[in-house]
Amino acid sequence: MRTTICLFFIFCFLPKTFSKDIPKRVYHTKRLSGTPPRIDGELNDSCWADSGWTGGFLQQQPNEGQPGTERTEFKILYDNINLYVGIRIHDSEPDKMDIRFSRRDNFDGDCAGICFDSYYDHKTGYEFNLNASGSKIDLMQMDVGGEWSIDTNWDAVWDGKTAVNDSGWSAEMCIPFSQLRFTKKDKHIWGLHVWRWINRKMEEAQFQLIPLDSQGRVHRFGILKGIHSIPNPKHIELLPYSKISQNRFKPDPANPFTRKGRSWSYGAGLDGKIGIAGNLNLDFTINPDFGQVEADPSVVNLTAFETFYEEKRPFFMEGRQMFNFDVDGQNLFYSRRIGGAPGHHPVLRDHEYNDIPENSTILGAVKLTGKTSSGWSIGLLSSLTEKESAEIKGAAGSRKEIVEPLSNYSVARLQRDFANGSHSLGIIFTSVQRRIKKNHLDFMPKSAYSGGLDGTVQWGNRTYYINGKGVFSHIIGHQDAIIRLQESAVHNFQRTDASHIEVDSTKTSLTGSGGEFEIGRGGNGRWRFEESFAWRSPGLELNDIGFLQHADIIEQSTDIAYVVTEPSGVLNNYEISFEQSNHWTFNKVSLYAAFELFGSVRFNNFWSMHGNIERETGWLHPYRLRGGPAMRLPDATHFHYHLFSDSRKRIQWNIGYFQSLFNDGSSGYWNLMGNFYWRISDKLDFSLAPSYSENKDNWQYITTQWIDNQSAVTPRYILGRIDQKTMDLTIRLNCYMTPELTIQYYGQPFISAGRFSDLKQIIDAKAKNFDDRYVSIDDEKRINEDGSDDIIVDENLDGLPEYRFGHPDFNVQEFRGNLIIRWEYKPGSALYVVWTHSRSRYCPNGSFKLTDDFESLFNTYPGNIFLVKLNYWFSI
Fold it and tell me: Which of 95, 214, 454, 738 is such that its CA lies 20 to 30 A from the CA of 329?
């Protein structure tokens, strides 16, 4: 009833203002009649001398709808192979232009660019940009499900240069038709977006004004006409590579695999792209190498849930939006599963050593993406990973044991647009097949399938929307695999207080479903709202190829926001929003309710800040005891604030603070974080991002011990109070010799220590009184055993221990760093020289002493990998 009343209020009483009706501008291009221009940024070729330059740019920000404060003009020409773009960027104060070098795909300083909706589907744009120094930025713009997003992982092969002059600067581009996607026809009509950014004024001026409050962007583009009679490019692009690397590590004379302290590896492979009918692309990779990819950040995860890591491998990053299908933040496709660490670890005998591959080898992968002339968007991906074995050596000889079977991962995604992209309907299907022939791998599913259906309806000039998704999963495997899934942290079917689920040891399959429904208003006015409902059944399982933290949940949320994009007084723009949510299990047990107030503001001096306060009440946590009954946890209040300085300056900084306060009186968490950025020169920048946090939790899970009482085996859920301190520092140094030659350094020292006290055994997890939930494991119940670091517990004080477990205190020290020299010696071809440095140390003392910890970390023997990789792009 509350949801119905809320929706009635929103639809009937909020002002129904729509975005301004701005006529679409049309640009007519011409076929190049003479010699193609030399791409040097000067715009002094004869083809640029005649008429055809277009200006009249309007500000999108800071003063929407007003003429640009500086004049901008552009011109587009084409022949059978390429588009040629020239942009004249005038500046009345050329000495104040912000000209800075940057990494590819980083928006830094003054910029200008052009974007083509070559499908003319009002949803997909291919954008090519240059900053004033000539650094390239290429990306895809997408209007999907009523939301606008960009993908900077898309890298095209094109040429672009800039030149600075007394009246400003100019940009010149050569963009092959082969890098765009379009349907075969005699006369083309495309969407067109041309823009210019003046950094010192924080001003964006556009050929076709796209209001800031638009719901989506691509459908607002202007129109490009005049392209006709061009052949449909059928192209083949090949990118072979070769590499050599040396791995240096601490030698261990007793271990036959690490005795020398170094190893060499050599490799070669091939990436390729085949254009099919001009609007479909077949990408493939054979024996890919990702040695130039930046290391993952260090974390200490004390929860039951898996840590999510961002994808960084180029083959899987490009075009990944096509395969994105998430339900309430849980994804059907998580590409990090492909080529992940092997799942089995052999049991070693005395004096045995093993050598396990860090990752499964990707033998090859193929990806088909594009859009048909009938409006179907297609995404197909398939990858094969090699059977991996661990080599084991010992006094009895050597042997091999399979640790990961030969596996195939596949994803198929189809979407169809209707009503010029206002409506859409899509489907996805995923599959994992493992060739399991050894009994010790029966804990892995043999087959895993998932699929989904999604749709979007928008109306009122795309102001209002309805989004719906439904998903299913079906896992097949040996009983061991299905039992393992049922008892995993994702499902916890063994929970004693959950009457709707139970572990079935006879099952050889597991099936589940989920979905979400959203209705709301997303833009074209100051008021925004959304009402959503989502669910994931207890048996939903996505983690063979997707990412799912936990199942068995029903969620409802209401979100109302007020957004002002026009400057007013000292404010440039601001937003205020309120969100309310409720969460239940599938047997209708309430887990918690949450209320959040959020605000953000940007001032006219270009400083900004945002913050929120959230209250969580009625916490009943079904996963805290790792398969035990749901546990009542204290209510909590969370605060978060962040302040950002003026991003135009050479020195920038931001600082944030997060705090959680719990109603048990002593639990709490706080984190102070920041970032300091210094642009030392136009070719050199440096940043430091420190973070320090303290976590005090009276209810931190430690272990579950099973006690055989002759009549039954009963669990003991052991928790304790943790006092954890964590410090990490992210360091980045970028040196830009030229737009094509860059040196990038990334380093992260990380220290986290946790000390446990007040150990307790849970006896009534749902008791409302804190003290009734547990009995203390005090000193009287502990047995001190000489030479043992274990905690040994005598429950009934009869002198005989009931159980024992390792002391949970910890101190984790890590350092991860990369130095990457990248030289794009010709468009699409690059040389990489990479140094990867790592140190890792663990000790079980729980002591946090920053100076001593850093000293011991940097006294730890390092691991170093030196790699040289060369690839060469060519087109057939």
Answer: 214
**Domain covering 11-228: architecture:** Sandwich (2.60)
**How long, in residues, is the chain?**
876
**What is the Cα–Cα distance from 167 to 171, expressed in whole angstroms?**
13
- Counting residues of the chain whose pLDDT is more than 90, the rounded percentage is 75
Burial annotation 403-418 (CB, 10 A radius, 16+ → b, else e): bbbbbebbbbbebbbe
User: In the chain, where are the structural domains located?
Assistant: 11-228, 234-291+300-551, 554-675, 683-876
Classify residue 301 by burial, with Cβ atoms within 10 Å: 0-12, 13-18, 19+.
Answer: exposed
Q: What are phi and psi of 219, to 5 degrees?
A: -70, -10
Q: What is the pTM of this model?
A: 0.90
How many Å apart are CA 577 and CA 571, to the nearest integer? Answer: 17
Between CA 865 and CA 837 the distance in angstroms is: 7
pLDDT of residue 409: 98
According to DSSP, the residues that pair with 703 across neighbouring strands are 718
Q: Which of 272, 241, 270 is nearest to 875 (CA)?
A: 272
SS3 643: strand
Cα-based torsion angle of the residue sequence 725, 726, 727, 731 in order, rounded to the nearest 10 degrees: 180
> Would you tell me how many other CB atoms lie within 10 Å of the CB of residue 621?
16
Q: DSSP letters along 778-790, please?
A: -GGGEE--TT--S
pLDDT winner (highest mean) among 212-216, 292-296, 576-580: 576-580
Position of tokens 């749709």? Answer: 455
Place of tokens 């009918």: 277
